[in-house]
Amino acid sequence: MSKLALVWNFWKRHKTWATVLVLSTLVMTVLSLAFPYVLRFIIDGIKQGIDRSRLIRYVLLLAGLGFLRALSETVLPWSRGRTNERFQWTVRNRVFRKMMDMGHSFINKFPTGDAMERLDHDLEELSWFACSGLFRAVSAVFTVLFAFGIMVSMNPLLTFITVLPMGIGVVVWMKLGPLVYSRYKKWRKKISEINNRIESSFTGIRLVKGYNMEEQVGARFRETLDERVRDAVSTVRVQMRIHVFYEAIAEIGILLVLWVGGFLVIGARLTLGEFVAFNAYILMLVGPMFDIGNLFVSGRRAQAGAERVSALEQHPTEVKPPDKPGQVEPGSASSQVTSDGTTLTLENVDFSYGSAPEAGETPSQAEKKTGGLVLKNVSMTFPAGSRIGIAGTVGSGKSTIFRLLFRLADPQKGRVRLDGHDVRLLDLDEYRQLFGYAPQEATLFSDTLKNNIAFGREEGGDSELDQVVSLAQLSSDVADMSKGLEEKLGERGTRLSGGQKERVAIARALVGKPRILVFDDATSALDAETEKELIDRLDKELDKATVIIVSHRLSILSECDRIYVLDQGEVKEEGTHQELLGRRGLYWNLYERQLIKEELERL
Amino acid sequence: MFYHGAGLSDEETKPTGKASVYIRRLWPFFRTYLGRVIAAGGLVLVSTGLGLLGPLLLKRAIDVNIGGGDLGGLAVTSLIYLGLQGGVFFATFFQMVWLFQVGEAGAADLKQAVFRHLLDVPVSFFDKHPVGKLISRVESDTEALKMLFTRTSVMLLQSVLMLVGMSLIMALTSWRLYLLVLALMPPFVVAFWVFQRKVRPVYIGVRRSVAEINSLVSEALKGLPVVQVFCRQQRFADRMNNLNRQKYRGEMKAMTLWYMVWFLVDFGEVLGLGLVLGFGGMMALRGDLTIGTLFMFVAYITRLFWPLRMISDQINVMQRAFASAERVFGMLDQKPEPEGEQIDGQLNLREGIAFEKVGFAYDGEKFVLNDIDLVVRKGEKVALVGETGGGKSSIVNLVLKFYTAQQGRILFDGRNLADMDRHQLRGTVGFVPQEVIMFPGTVLDNLRMMDSTVPRETVIEAAKRARIHEAVLKFPNGYDTNLIERGVNFSLGERQLLAFARALVSDPQILILDEATSSVDPHTEQLIQEGLAELLVGRTAIIVAHRLATIQMVDRIIVVHKGRIAEQGSHEELLARDGLYSRFYKLQYVGGQA
Predict the structure, then answer these.
(1) What does pTM read for this prediction?
(2) CATH topology of domain A2-314
(3) What is the C-alpha end-to-end distance of chain B, expressed in Å?
(4) Contact: B231, A81; criterion CB under 8 Å
(5) Where are the domains of chain A?
(6) Nearest residue on chain A to B129, judged by CA atoms?
(7) Partner-chain contact B221 A81, CB within 8 Å
């Protein structure tokens, strides 16, 4: 059961609450079971012809008990449900927090939809088991034990005869339960297959139509649907068999009470009240028998759920913060951040995303994936206050360089240094605070415009916000929005154009006057003029910051202090714009092509 | 990255149409199974009816048999009880299974109808509707409708039967005691109704929280690098905490309401029992009532409130089902692609395809093609060259009749494409789109496009010619390998080859190829060239070309720039002209891609 560690740890931390739950379960059981006991006295009383006031006292006692029972049967499941929700809340919070520190291997392993599913349905199922499932079983055990005791005290023979079939019930459930589960899984699989078919057919609608395969695709869909109906019905058949079986056990119990009990009543070895109470106890035992059996099935499902949830949490992160605070060089981290000089260097860096080959991959592909270095022996220097350009074709490794600079990943070989210090020894948050970053694809979140721009660096207040909005040439766009900076973006808010998104992302990069600004091809949706204007203004305002920029535009690259040209993960050329052009190599080639592109744009 | 919250807004819509209209339109889907439905309905009558007799028998056992000390009679009563319950189980089992079967089968028919109908709807429909939404139309909405025709209707029937049956039995045995029970009911009916009203918005709120949690997870994961560079991890965790709290509160509110009703039912039962036992007990003491009758009332009271709750629950389910029905029929009411005129026998391209002054806009306003005049003669191979977004793919889309041009005509041997039967037209065409889509199923089925009449040998022959045979055989199951979603277990280059093989299997007169832009390793590049050469033999071809080798294989090059045909001619002619083509040539075909 160690796989359910998630659940046990939760209860270890909430021992008091567990005790309270066990005790109230006990109280509830006693109240429920007392009910038929009193009923018995009423029936026997009437039979014996007691006086009215005693009858009324009995009935009031019964009603009082009933009221308490109703109360406890409400409050207890309610608090169990509440604990389920609490559990869910706690675990989801914790797992999500851990996910926020994960790197690229996590994203590769858990596609977004999968991670969502795990945090939603799997966690939901697990949390039901964590409290409701467990304590229902506790309650069931109490009920069975007590009811059994009371029944034996009334008549051992009748108890034995009537309870016997119930024991069989538990055995049957433990046999059929797993069958239900496995069939259910098969059924669910068919449902996701249906979804896959719909998805691929609609995504590939042109192909479907182009090849006139509407009929065939339709026929395949029909086949899968039929299989699904078959699997669904076979699941429900077993479920129904169990359902009917349980009802049957209860009714056989009642039948036995009726017959054997009636026989005993006639022989005056059982009172009529006891006869009625027996009836009630039999009915009360069916549910708990089911719960006990069910514990094993739901436990297995919860186990699978727990594994799926824990997998998210236990995935290793790419980047580890320094083990001990002492490992941060004394005073160095903070002093580096405040000093003027912040020179970044990459020293002979090798990097690969290295993931294990997937099933079905041919060796050559796997090799390409694992052995293929994305960066090979890359060395670069970004002196404080300089403007450095990086050029290269798609897939040459530009964005990977930024991953290493931001410490989203650490290189397998070589080092990244900040003013000579290995960045792995620096406090991660303080180090990352150095950067302002505008990514290639403007990443915005469903939040207000203000929160998207300030994005947590709120120290500068509204005046700074206005300043970066104006710097990023967003002022007029903001003025056009009905709520200005408080406008909500995203799903149920305003949708921005590609150019607007890019400028929001640039404004965000500027907040907090970061020492190092990184623009990863962040202006591709802007037209050449807007872009030029933007860069020129930035240049004036940001004279002290280091700027690292990836761009195709020659006007931008030509003004860089130094340009690195990347090709297939290696630095092939470096120098100033003029030097590189003079070399007539890769850079010159890129330059020529860009010239044609810009010419074509005009034609 | 802003996508619409999963089905969120859908939940809140209320049906605008009339329920009777939906029921009438849904009816045909379930009529097929009418026999089963009626049989199941009959069994519901039997099981409910027999089930109600149980307490009546117990009363008889207590009053007549046990009271009279009649052992034989007791045995008879027990046997009747056994028979009765046997009947109930039998009826319940088959009723449930049959009904479930009918529901699943009916829903499957409905899913099939929606799915199949959408395959006939124009491509432009799919530009406007995200696939995720369509999946929930085909899947979730039909499921909601299934409930309407199975569970809901049976529950209602059963509940009403139980109420009426119990009332009759109780009233006939002791109408005075029954009136007492009856007096209890109105407050509960009101309470259930109020509960339904209150709990629905709470559930909608909970579903919204869940959707918000999901979209936060999705946003955070997609933007993870930005989150980390800006050290916003804790802030996102805080947002998650807030959403969790919001969900928790909603769930607790719903749960509290739910348990209040639960308490009410429990309490009502106790109240009823108290009243019956108190008054009934006194009547029994006076000798006006037998103990058996008292017992019977006790047994019925515990079953009285269930049907009341069911009825109010199911009314809610019905409302939601009608909202689903509206969305499902919204899909079924989409107009299919227009039917064209079919010619007798097989359609054959004799002369060629011609564009005459064609203008086209996807949205009817922003024209992406203007004044296109183009003739492709039978057997000719042409390449479309130009910038991304220049209009090359639009030309291809028009030839395949995926869209209809607003201006000008497209002629197939002089016949207007708009008047032609789309299946006949597409039957002459082999289409290789830019993104190679694989369908769930085996390699074999993907290559023969699910058409199981195509023999295996033909497929393998085509795969050999497309140079993909070796790669397929690398998998242990060869052609029977099951492709996981979108064929991710083949490399990009290999998928291109698979698409060639697919086209070869269909052996089309006209080939339309939208080349993939991604670069591949030299070995695969060689295979692609060989495969393409095989594919081109003896066919008319229109190719959106991205490879140098490809433009060297064609007869004529057409330069499409900003929605117009800018230049055309052979490679040498165009290069000599030193116009747009020579620039594209340098840009795209010499020395890789920028």
Answers:
(1) 0.79
(2) ABC transporter transmembrane region fold (1.20.1560)
(3) 25
(4) no
(5) 2-314
(6) A202
(7) no
